[in-house]
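Table S2 (continued). Query chain:
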Amino acid sequence: MHGVRLELAQAQARAIGLPLDVVFVNGSSNDEYERNMSAHLLAHKEHGVSSVAFGDIFLEDLRRRREEKLIRIGMCGLFPLWKLDTRKVIGEFIELGFRSIVCCVSDAYLDETALGRIVDWDFINTLPPDVDPCGENGEFHSFAYAGPIFNDRIDVTVGENVYRRVERTTPDDAVIPSAVCPPSNTRTAKGFWFCDLLPRQGQDESRSVPKVGW
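Corresponding output:
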């Protein structure tokens, strides 16, 4: 939902050295999404997995929804970043040497000029005051391509920018693509900007992601 290609998610998992279990959802039904997720999680539960970790920091309704879904299948959620100061979180992320690139922004907060930016202090310090430095309200999303837990850096280029308007759906359906970003209490997105991140294969006409500190 962040607009990142599957092959890059696979490359990310390989670089970190972790297995990747991909859950496909063919339609826009929220029921289908929940059934598929439950089936995959139950399969892991049979192999001794009892908890699922999330990166949520302060969105109470999102955490509650996750926990309710997990309780139904006898699992629990872990929230290691919960209630931490988001500026300190992103500061530690940067200082530890992780590198990430902005791949999606909500037009309620940012415009397409933010796409392809490296998440560093230059980027964080130029964000509007009402934009969370971790993008916790869904203001922006990013793709991590390097860091201390990566065995190899993932070389990517920045391709085409694409704008997608929010699709209004019935309460029984998943909201796509507006589900990309949790709803903010103060602003409503009309749509989202995405940049197409591509695996780098020699020289091309796309913008190359700079090797910042890695």
